[in-house]
Every structure is written in C-alpha cells, then in structure tokens.
Amino acid sequence: MSNTIIKVENLSKAYQLGEIGTGTISRDLERWYARLRGKEDPFLRIGETNNRNIKGNSDISWSLKDINFEIEQGDAVGIIGPNGAGKSTLLKILSRVTSPTSGRIIGKGRIASLLEVGTGFHPELTGRENIYLNGAILGMRRKEITKKFDEIVDFAGVERYIDTPVKRYSSGMYVRLAFAVAAYLDSEILVIDEVLAVGDAEFQQKCLGKMGEISKGEGRTVLFVSHNMGSIAELCNKAILLRNGQLIQHGDAQQIINRYINNEENQQSVWHKSSEKFSSQFFDLLSFYIVNEHKEMNDTGVARNDAKTGVCLKFNTNELNADFCYGIAFYDQHETLLYWSYQTDKSKVEWLQPEIGTNQIIIWLPQHMLNQGSYRIRPLASLHYIKWLVAPNAGPSIHLKILGGLSNSPIWNDARPGLLAPVLDFERI
Amino acid sequence: MNNQQYDWSIEPQSSLLDLKLKDTWAYRDLLWLLVRRDFVSFYKQTILGPLWFFIQPLLTTMIFTFVFGNLAGISTDGLPQPLFYMAGITAWNYFADCLTKTSTVFKDNANIFGKVYFPRLIMPLSIVVSNLVRFGVQFLLFIIVMGYYYFIAKADFNITWAISLFPLIVVLMALLGLGAGMLISAMTTKYRDLAFLVTFGVQLLMYATTVIYPLSTALENYPSYSWIIEYNPMTPLIETFRYGFLGNGTFSWGALGYTTGVTLVILLIGIVVFNKVEKNFVDTV
C-alpha cells in the first residue's frame, strides 16, 4: 500500500440503548470502581453484534465492531449497507463529531465533511454572510473563502440574491448555495452523507458531476454514503459493505453493489418495530408490509404485475395534528426514486387523517405498471412544512418483487423492455 | 509522501492536558464570524431589541434603589444610590450573562455540533465576546449616569487610579463566567436537572456578591458570615470596579490576586472538562 491516506484500525463504537440519564451517577461510580480495580468495564460486553431484529440482553449496542480498512489517495469510496449498519456512525467518527469507543483512525491531509447541507446557516443573514460563516464552520479561513467566493456563487447560481437574507430563498436555492460552499472546500478528503436526497434532479446531477471531478480530476479522496446504488456506481470506484456494524466486504464498487442488491437479507417484505427510531407522538410506526387484494399480509413480497397489491402502514397515534401527513416512497432496485405517494398529492380536505390509537392504512399501488424486477418501498411521515417525522431515505425499507402477469400476451411472460410495463389501450378513430 | 507519516489520528481518549488551544486558534476567523452573526441577527430580528440593553439595567437600578435603598435602607457607602447599584448591576450582568449563556452551549448548539466538527471551545468563546457588545452598551449608560451625577447633580464621588484596572476586571469576569459556564455545561449534558439550578444559582450568587450592599457594611454588621462574601471571587471584582469609578469600595491587591488565581483554576478545569465531554456529547443528546 503505497498511497494510504486513511487507515482504520479495529474501530468500534458502542451506544447505550434506552433511556440515557437514569441512574447514570450510580453507573458512573460502578464503572469507575471497576476501572479502579483494573477490571473490565461492566457495561461493555464483548462478542455481541448489533442486530436490530434481535433484542440483545445488554443495554450496549455495537454500532461498529472491529472495523479495519485502508483507503488510498484518489479513491472514491461508497459506503453501502442497510439501515442501522453503521454507515452514519462511521462518517460521524471520521468527521470527528463523535469519538470511537475503541480502535483508531489515522490519516493525512485535511478532512472536510458534509453530513448535512447548510449546517449553521442563519436565516437572517444574507447569502454572502452565510457563505463566510458556513465556510468557516467547515474549516476554511476567511482568505480562502474570499478567493473562491465568485466560483461558489457561480456554481450555486444565486448571484442575484447574494445580498438577500437566505430566509427568502427557495429551498432549492438554499441547498445549492450550501452544497457549493462545501464543494469548494480545499481538503484532501471529502466525506459526504446522503445530502443529494434534496434538490432537484438537475442539481443532483450537477453535484454528482462536481464530486466526480473532485475525485477523478483533482485526485482527492471521497467517502460517500448513499442508499442510491446508481449514484454510487456512477461516482465510486471502491465500496465498503457494512452490516450490523461489521465490515462485510471492501473492494471494487460494482462487485459490492451487485452483492448488496442480490442479498437475501436485503429482501425483507415485512418490517416490525424494534426500536424507538421511528416513534413520535404523532406517528409511531409499528409495522410496514405488503398486502394482497384481500388486505392480508403478503410476507413473500412477490406479486404479479396485474394483481391488486398494496402497502400497509400500521402505526399508533397519540396526538393529532392537522399538518400531519404520511405516505410512501417507491424505488427501483438501484434505489432510484420512482415516485412518492404522499397525502399532499390531494387537497388537504381529502387527506385520510389518522385517529387516536392504532391505525392501519393501506396504500394501493397501481396495477399494470411495474416491470418484472425488485423494488423497495419506504414510509414517509411529516408535519407538513414543519418537520420530518420519518424523512426520505431514513425509514425502514421493504422489498417488493414483481413476477409475471405482465400482460395477457403469451410473448411477454418475462421482463419487458424498459423500466415500466403498462398495458395500454389502442383505439382506432 | 512518506507512507509512515500520518498527520492526524482519531482515538477514543486524548490527554487531559491537551487543551486544543492551537486548534482553536486556527479557527479564529470562525469566532469573529459567529460574533458577527449574533450581532447582526439580534439587530435584524427586533426593533425593540437593542433598547432592552438600556431598559433592563435602568429598571433594575430603579427597583433596587426603591427596595434596598429606600425601603430596607441598606447603606451605599455615601454614594448616590442609583449610581451605586448601577455600577454593581452593570458589572454583575456581564458575568451572569457569560455564565448562563455558556452553561447551555451544548443544548443550544446540539444540531450544529452533531453535524460538523470544529474546536468546540469556539462556541463559548464567541458567547463571551458577543456579550461584550451588550456590556459595552450598558457600560456607556453607566458613564452617562455618572456624568449626570458629576456635572449636574454635583454628587460627591471621585474617580481613582484603580480605574486603570478596568480592562483586567472585564477580562477576569469574562474568564470566570466562561470557566464556570463550561463546567456547568459539561455537567448538564449528563445530569440534566442541573440546568434548572443555574438561573436560580446565579440569582443566589448575586446576593452573596456585593452588588446591592458594600463589603464594608457586610464586614461590620455580620462579621461571622462575611467570609462567604469575601471568598466569593466576584466580590473583589465588583469592589474594585466601584473603587475605580466611584472612589468608594474595598480594594486590596490580595483580594484581586485571589480572584485571579481562582479564575485561572476554574477556567483550566472548565476547559479540560468541556473538551472531555465534547468528544461524546453527540451520543447522549
């Protein structure tokens, strides 16, 4: 390894489950006493993996466990894995937002991380002021920002509004400006979390282009977490596959993407609540699964193109809110978003509002629409224009496989050409 | 590039004595931008905003004059009552603001701390500097009131040489507030109930400081309890402030030296604890 830029050695990170803060004084004392006697920390148990579906018998969950890998200069590395695999934790440790429980990372060069677009943007400040503030938060000196100021504004395409407070910006402009600041950071290593989930398609392409330029053109190293296999395939030459906090594979991006897509474990069609991650007083998701035409659970997740198929959301509501809305996001096997079906598709009076208690709501999918293949569905929930309760790409995903029923014609009993497979009516006039 | 040579490492523990001051210095531009942000956003948000700077000390002075000066009849060492109280309030407010704002720094910045790394020390430092603006305005008001009593009301007070210690007093108040605030902020991330105590505690501490009474009176009337007031590191600061600007108060180099010592110790402990908590704070929010 001649050009190693980041070296991760036995990296582990433990999180405490449950209520933090109850009895912590006594635990601290116990821990301190154990350390005093030279014994092992009683609250860390070795050898337990972090599987969200199996409830462990200790309160400690290993978000990352003994991770080892090296990254070479100029590599663009995609970090892949199902929800809860430890992707974000790894990025957080790399960004120094949190520190590891054991192990270490060593490396050379400056790291710039972008875990969120527009961290520290202040709505009252103008675009210009925010560029300086955000740049400084990301670690740029004032002089550097001044030098790159014009390029940043140009990339974001907001020249006209540069002296307007950003609270008057459209959300698209806001995101563009924020990404532009980060894109022009002068760092050897760039760490990016799924920030591309926002912004319009054109801007997403522009961001991917810029990131490609950074890694291929300028020889800088990029670490990129995404659920979108398409973007990873396009951008990255290497990939790391994580599952339950463990490193499964590290190597060629395309190979790992294929392995991930075709993995059996990734094909769950029923999801049941196992943590408080998707809980709030407005929306406490209990389970999420595919149903057949009789409104019964379809746990195989396999359905015909012409069969009536729906997605059932079962959730508890403890508090009603007029702005509450929910829906699903529908992806193809590369995690490319095909559509959202959200309550806002209809006017507010038509929203199917939940009731206090347990709600079971089925969202029917269009028949005669999808081609043969694998699809993923994630729930969405928000207080409209206020905040996300289950943000896009954050929710648990379930798998739907379309097999057969593509048309009545004997010719097409296999996949049809193209992404979709509708059967249209032909009429002579 | 040398293969064996790495610039940085991310490890679970770092040395307690690593204060990260060099790291913080590298981010000094951010400090000024944050101060500017606080200033600009404060002016942009409200029309009455800056006026509060004046209203609050004026009203407090009036109430103190009425309650403690007239009703309770506490001595002000022969100084005009409003002037006496205002001197105490102006100085005390700066310390109290630094302390209370710093003590919630983790809670207030949880979002930004969770997303990006920069030396966390920058945040409390920016609070202390931002509050300096507010202190400046209130101090100006105090000077105006001083001028009124000197030239128009012809009150009997005089400025002494100790006024030259003013910058030192401000720096000590800032550092003491910063150190104590950081200590509290670090503890509140773990034991939340402490946060409720801060506002109350600061209020109590004010009564144990010579804001509404002169040290001489306390020493005279309650000789057995006055040690509490004497050992309070804020007391020498307020007394020196008053001695410098109004010529009345108990000044001693020993007391000022004591305060400086206490301030440096609290500040050092504050930074060490703050840096320790900062590393894993994100996980406990």
Automatic annotation (TrEMBL), chain A:
It comes from Pedobacter xixiisoli. CDD domains: ABC_KpsT_Wzt. Belongs to the ABC transporter superfamily. The keyword Cytoplasm does not apply. SMART domains: AAA. Keywords: ATP-binding, Nucleotide-binding, Transport. Pfam families: ABC_tran (PF00005). Residues 44-269 form the ABC transporter domain. One of its GO terms (molecular function) is ABC-type transporter activity. SUPFAM superfamilies: P-loop containing nucleoside triphosphate hydrolases (SSF52540). This is ABC-type polysaccharide/polyol phosphate transport system, ATPase component. One of its GO terms (cellular component) is membrane. It comes from the Bacteria.
TrEMBL record, chain B:
GO terms for molecular function: ABC-type transporter activity. GO terms for cellular component: plasma membrane. It is found in: Cell inner membrane; Cell membrane. It is a multi-pass membrane protein. Residues 48-277 form the ABC transmembrane type-2 domain. Keywords: Cell inner membrane, Cell membrane, Membrane, Transmembrane, Transmembrane helix, Transport. The keyword Transmembrane helix applies. The chain crosses the membrane at residues 51-71, 83-100, 121-151, 163-187, 194-215, 251-274. Its main location: membrane. Pfam families: ABC2_membrane (PF01061). GO terms for biological process: lipopolysaccharide transport. The keyword Membrane applies. Belongs to the ABC-2 integral membrane protein family. This is Transport permease protein.
